[in-house]
User: What shape does this take?
Amino acid sequence: MKIDVVFSGGGVKAYAFLGALTSIEEHKHELERVAGTSAGAIVAAFLAAGYRLGEIEQLMNELDLKKFLDQPAISNYIPFSKWLFFYFQMGLYKGDKLENWLYECLAEKDVYTFNDVKPGYLKVVVSDLSLGKLVVIPDDIERIYGINPKHFPVAKAIRMSAGFPYFFMPKKLPGKTKDKSIIVDGGLLSNFPLWIFENGDTIKKRPVLGVKLSANIKDYQPRKIRNAFDMFHALFSTMKQAHDSRYISKSQKNNIIFIPVENVETTNFSISEQTKTNLIEAGKNRAEKFLRNWPK
Assistant: This one.
């Protein structure tokens, strides 16, 4: 059966997507349109570019996540300078190595810009802090920024979507005014864009399956806020979850695979091989259990 799939954000937890995709493939579901935020956008882009599951697994297995921690060179000689970059550049790491890796991987499939992807078959979510907008690439960039989406690099869109605030330096995007927009992780405004393929039609062309790296919304526990740091973390988490949680609560939860992975930090780029294996197994087990009776 042909289906559309939406992947949530989740940083390094994205290894769980490999397990879920394995189960989806075993159940003979064929992916058509794909979309995602942050790490989910990476997986979606590989699928839209024509990568098979085995090829994605190879890319992820050979990947050394720590190579993406590309702090400015001067920080190696003047350690204190990294905090200056954090203050003025708004992030610890440049994110260039992540973007270059994405570019090289997509180039293997002759995918450079959105013109190289079947129209409408890949959608990436980013957050524009300057304009206060949630932006879907390629759909919105001509209207908002005056940029031809056919010429916009897919790797750049994904890098922007995966720009975890304060961890990676935000990207700057020129627009219709003289000031550039500050673009960060799409998860800030919509970490699970299950709504993205809605077009007002009462009859969908095909089922839309969501894969979310978190427990079911009913399982969220109240946060203990004891100090300013706890409050900042709670603010950020609420921003990521509130919009999507409201949408999910009104939609059919029967179309969402929830994969509980709360014990893994989103930006822990030093996770062990065993943790990666556990994430893959969690994704496969949850998807297998879900897909036995899907669609209902």
